[in-house]
């Protein structure tokens, strides 16, 4: 537990830690920590499987299935049951807080649960982490990048402590967070000649977070920030905002948000008002439902996502991409490889716990002990915040409706 306790008194923390260990074996399985009964353990995932979110999320689920299959359906001496849950609704067409909460509670109330993989969206994770934290369940995200889920620097007041009511950390991620991505975005803008940028965001935890990060770092690269505004995601179009951006004299535009929050409409309207402007987006729009609908604006589009070109990865990743296409008949969406690694590292934590692989706290402890892991993503540690030490981001252009790898942006150069 060293290095993962929050800022509470030693005496209170000791009581919290003891309580987590003591109440995990309750009859309903809702208490924190404790031993899971039986030799079959359940790993849940929670991802948005409806609307434009579906292709990316299904690809992540496939990556998780592939990792479990390659492990023979086991972790150490334990058999693993995998259950995929949907955190979206037909009405929303994206993640929805009620669905997220229901998924987290389902996992918390299942006495066989050993790990929870999710969420895909950072705003959704802000809902589920407190639930899995109180239940003492390891939660690993393949794709959350919002800084405030794990770190105070660059976060909102009260973050990240407010997500951990049990007083200890139980959440981590295998993707580099947005303090790194924002630096990569700004570096990408600078390299492409942007001197004045106008920023819009979708007001969600993730979107506003990455927008604020870019706005903060842009001046360091001598890029003037002309605006940083939230949009009305229920608006039919954004022509008035696009006209405002053109009038500002911006030669660059950045959208902090996800495809499902009118990303395509924002993009098209901004481009229509100023066909010369360069359009930048983060991993929230790095998916086929976005790129396939851009039309003419794709020629001015620049996108960052943690996924790199297959050639930039170690041999294990080459095998992943080959095996994925052979099994599922198509190339994976960008975050499939992170889904694979989220499952793989969860299985590793269970295996490393040995005979205690069915003990929730032991598995959490083993996750936070990971150092020098040689994975499909490269070699990394999990730090005391639950963050990966990986720091490279991929820079992409769009051609024929598809992401085309441009270059690797390293943290040092960003």
Descriptive account of the structure:
This protein is an alpha/beta fold. The protein has 2 domains: 10-176 and 315-380, Rossmann fold (3-Layer(aba) Sandwich), CATH 3.40.50.2300; 178-305 and 393-409, Rossmann fold (3-Layer(aba) Sandwich), CATH 3.40.50.2300. 37% of the residues lie in helices and 19% in strands. The chain has 12 helices and 15 strands. It has helices at residues 10-22, 54-70, 97-109, 122-134, 178-191, 205-217, 239-248, 259-273, 288-291, 315-328, 336-352, 360-368; strands at 40-47, 74-75, 78-86, 113-117, 138-141, 171-173, 196-201, 224-230, 252-256, 278-281, 301-305, 373-375, 378-380, 393-399, 402-409. The strands form 3 sheets. The protein has a 7-stranded mixed β-sheet with strand order 8-7-9-10-11-14-15. Strands 2-3-1-4-5-6 form a 6-stranded mixed β-sheet. A two-stranded antiparallel sheet has the order 12-13. It starts with 9 loop residues before the first helix and ends in a 5-residue tail after the last strand. Mean pLDDT is 92; it is low at 1-31.
* Annotation field: number of helices: 12
Query: What's the CATH topology name of the largest domain?
Result: Rossmann fold
The description of the largest β-sheet is: 7 strands, mixed
**What sequence of helices (H) and strands (E) makes up the elements?**
HEHEEHEHEEHEHEHEHEHEHHHEEEE
Total domain modules: 2
General shape: globular
Question: What order do the strands of the largest sheet run in, or round the barrel if closed?
Answer: 8-7-9-10-11-14-15
CA radius of gyration is 21 Å
* End-to-end Cα distance: 33 Å
Which parts are unreliable, with pLDDT below 50 for 5 consecutive residues or more? 1-31
- How much of the sequence is in beta strands? 15-25%
Query: Portion of residues in helices?
Result: 25-40%
Structural class: alpha/beta
Mean pLDDT: 92
Mind telling me the CATH superfamily name of the largest domain? Response regulator
Please state the second-level CATH architecture of the largest domain.
Answer: 3-Layer(aba) Sandwich
Question: How many strand elements?
Answer: 15
What is the CATH level 1 assignment of the largest domain? Alpha Beta
């Amino acid at each position: 537990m060293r290095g993962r306790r929050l800022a509470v008194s030693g005496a209170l923390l000791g009581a919290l830690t003891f309580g987590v260990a003591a109440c995990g074996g309750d009859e309903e399985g809702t208490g924190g920590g404790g031993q899971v009964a039986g030799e079959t353990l359940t790993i849940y995932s929670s991802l948005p499987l409806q609307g434009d979110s579906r292709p990316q999320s299904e690809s992540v689920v496939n990556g998780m299935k592939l990792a479990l299959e390659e492990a023979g359906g086991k972790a150490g001496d334990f058999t693993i049951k995998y259950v995929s849950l949907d955190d979206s609704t037909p009405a929303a067409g994206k993640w929805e807080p009620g669905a997220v909460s229901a998924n987290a509670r389902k996992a918390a109330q299942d006495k066989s649960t050993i790990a929870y993989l999710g969420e895909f969206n950072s705003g959704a994770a802000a809902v589920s982490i407190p639930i899995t934290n109180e239940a003492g369940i390891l939660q690993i995200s393949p794709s959350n990048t919002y800084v405030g889920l794990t770190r105070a620097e660059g976060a909102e007041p009260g973050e990240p402590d407010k997500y951990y009511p049990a007083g200890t950390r139980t959440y981590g991620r295998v993707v580099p967070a947005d303090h790194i991505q924002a630096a990569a975005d700004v570096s990408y803008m600078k390299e492409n000649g942007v001197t004045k940028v106008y920023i819009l965001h979708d007001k969600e935890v993730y979107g506003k977070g990455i927008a604020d990060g870019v706005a903060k770092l842009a001046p360091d690269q001598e890029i003037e920030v002309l605006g940083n505004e939230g949009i009305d995601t229920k608006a039919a179009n954004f022509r008035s905002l696009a006209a405002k951006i053109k009038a500002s004299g911006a030669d660059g535009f950045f959208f902090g948000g996800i495809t499902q929050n009118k990303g395509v409409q924002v993009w098209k309207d901004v481009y229509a008002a100023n066909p010369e402007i360069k359009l930048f987006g983060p991993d929230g729009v790095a998916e086929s439902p976005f790129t396939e609908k851009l039309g003419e604006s794709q020629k001015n589009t620049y996108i960052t996502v943690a996924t790199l070109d297959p050639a930039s990865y170690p041999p294990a990743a080459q095998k992943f991409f080959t095996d994925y296409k052979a099994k599922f008949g198509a190339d994976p969406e960008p975050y499939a490889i992170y889904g694979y690694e989220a499952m793989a590292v969860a299985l590793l934590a269970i295996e490393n716990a040995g005979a205690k692989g069915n003990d929730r706290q032991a598995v959490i402890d083993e996750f936070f002990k990971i150092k020098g892991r040689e994975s499909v993503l490269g070699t990394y540690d999990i730090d005391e915040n639950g963050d990966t030490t990986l720091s490279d981001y991929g820079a992409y252009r769009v051609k024929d409706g598809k992401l085309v790898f441009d270059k690797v942006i390293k943290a040092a150069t960003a």
